[in-house]
Specification:
CATH class of the largest domain: Mainly Beta
Oligomer: single chain
Distance between the termini: 15 Å
Number of strands: 15
CATH superfamily of the largest domain: sav2460 like domains
Structural class: alpha+beta
Number of domains: 3
CATH architecture of the largest domain: Sandwich
Radius of gyration: 21 Å
Number of helices: 4
Amino acid sequence: MACLTCKVEKLSNEYPPENVSKECDHPSLICLRCVVTYVDKNGKCPHPNCGLMISKQSQTMNLFKAYLLKQFKEYESAYTPSIDFGEGSQFVNITGLTGESASIPFTPQMTVDQLKTQIQQKLKHDKGKQKLLYNGKEMTVMRSNGGYATLSDYEVNPNTTICLVICLFSIPENFDDVIFDLYWRYPSHGRDYLDASCLLFRGNSFQQVVDFRGSASITAVRHSGDVMNDAQRIGHHTINVSLKKIPSNVTHLFFTLSAWSSPNISHYPNPSLKFYDATKPGNDLCKTTFHHAKNSRAVVMCSVSRDSQGHWKIFESGQLSAGNAQDYQPLISTIQKLIKSGI
């Protein structure tokens, strides 16, 4: 997600963990560096239409400065073409969409398989579930001629960034109905909605959305609508996907969460999300987390994508975004950027 102030795409952990003041009632869409710089200069919240006066030496500001110093000591240029790790040092920076990252010593002769092994050791993601992207291209382990692919085959330069995407689950061919199941508790101000939505794409082209309003044009994706329990203050959405009925031209289904009236997801206590085969509701197909997204208005949770052989796979996302079920355009733009990058 791009910072509102500097307009640079940033990782989730480059945003403040909370608003600069508890009195601020807006999503945290300005990066940590811009918040600290603005408050130090102007003594007030940098968010548009807020302007709340903030003490430069408040406990929250001192905490933000400590976070900033810690986070950017090593990864200060994570989104520039190259990263300076010191004279004579050469690394590749591995970055996931949820903010995790690792630095791996670089040699042009290193194979993609060797790189995945080091990622597994550092970030604990199985090699078989890793998808590596560089300059919008997937880095495969093997060359087309059968040899092991190297970093030089993909023209990877030292001190640059490779994107890591995790395949959460390869859906077997005998699966048909899978269910995206979301519960949330009401915010303190009363009934409100944490919307689960499914956005369908053909390549990079947005086709349609299925949300609480339903969809008359596609029966393969069915939304429960708002299931609200006012007595227990619990909301519930389910999205049922019949994979075998998905039109053949649809290549991606992106599942998103977004806050309806509240400024960000953190206002909904104890949300619970499951993804399971309809015939085995007790067995989660994959584990996802959105703790990093609590200060965002919306998050792209995961995608169900069709590969070149027609097999469906669930990929982790966690990409933060603006927008919600009242205005999908920011989410569509975020997803199109993900697809363009090869995700």
